[in-house]
Design goal:
By secondary structure, this protein is an alpha+beta fold. It has seven helices and ten strands. The longest helix is centred in the C-terminal third of the chain and has 37 residues. The protein is globular and about 60 Å long.
C-alpha cells in the first residue's frame, strides 16, 4: 500500500511532497444498485436515487442535488441499495456515458443505480474539490473493457492515479481553481450576451 504521508522522522527534515496516488487509496469505491421500474418516480422520500442521466443534469459546480426518484431508508434496504454519503464522487461505469469522463459529487446522502459507481473519499487524506479537479486528467476510455457496451470495474478505476499534495495544499489549489473557473464562466456568459445583442441588432 502506498504511504500517503512521510514518517514523523522524515517530516522533521524535509517538507511534504506531492505524490501520485491510486484512487483506491483515497477512499472506498462501490457500485450502485439495481433500480426496478416499479420503484422509480417516487418523490418526497429521504434519499434521492440517481441514474446515469443525472450526471449531465448536475449543477454548474458538479453537484448532483435533484432527482425525480427517491427512496426511504426501508426501501433502500429492500433494494439492497447502498446509501452513499454527501460529497461522494460519482461516475458512470457502463455504456457510452463513461467515455464522457463526467465526474460529479453528491450534495446529500443518496443512492445510485447499477450503471454508476461512487468513490467515498477518506476526508483525512483527500479534499473532494481537489479530487474532482484532478480527475479531469483521467480518461476512463483507455482502461474500459472493449465491446459494444464499454464498462469499467472498481479495480480498473481504483488503479488510476492522481497527483496528491498535502491536504492543506489540496484545499488551497481547489479554492484557486474554483475562483478561476467561475471567472472564466462569467466571461463566457458575458460574451454570449454581447453576441446575442449583436445578432438582435442585425435582425432589427
Amino acid at each position: 500500500m502506498i504511504e500517503l504521508r512521510p514518517s514523523a522522522e522524515s517530516e522533521a527534515v524535509k517538507p511534504l511532497r506531492w505524490q501520485r496516488v491510486r484512487l483506491r487509496y483515497l477512499g472506498r469505491l462501490k457500485g450502485g444498485s439495481g433500480f426496478p421500474d416499479a420503484d422509480q418516480g417516487v418523490v418526497g422520500e429521504e434519499f434521492p436515487f440517481f441514474k446515469v442521466k443525472h450526471l449531465e443534469e448536475a449543477d454548474a459546480d458538479g453537484c448532483m442535488r435533484l432527482s425525480e426518484h427517491s427512496v426511504s431508508r426501508e426501501s433502500a434496504a429492500q433494494l439492497g441499495a447502498f446509501i452513499f454519503p454527501a460529497d461522494t464522487v460519482v461516475l458512470a461505469k457502463v455504456g457510452a456515458a463513461l467515455l464522457l469522463n463526467r465526474f460529479r459529487y453528491l450534495g446529500q446522502p443518496s443512492c445510485l443505480d447499477n450503471n454508476m459507481m461512487g468513490l467515498v473519499l477518506d476526508q483525512r487524506v483527500a479534499a473532494q474539490r481537489f479530487v474532482l479537479h484532478s480527475l479531469s486528467l483521467i480518461d476512463l476510455g483507455q482502461v474500459a473493457n472493449p465491446g459494444a457496451v464499454p464498462s469499467v470495474n472498481a479495480e480498473q478505476v481504483g488503479g488510476q492515479s492522481v497527483p496528491l499534495p498535502p491536504l492543506a495544499q489540496q484545499r488551497a489549489i481547489a479554492d484557486y481553481l474554483d475562483r478561476e473557473t467561475a471567472r472564466l464562466d462569467a466571461l463566457v456568459a458575458a460574451k454570449k450576451r454581447v453576441l446575442g445583442l449583436l445578432a438582435e441588432k442585425r435582425r432589427a
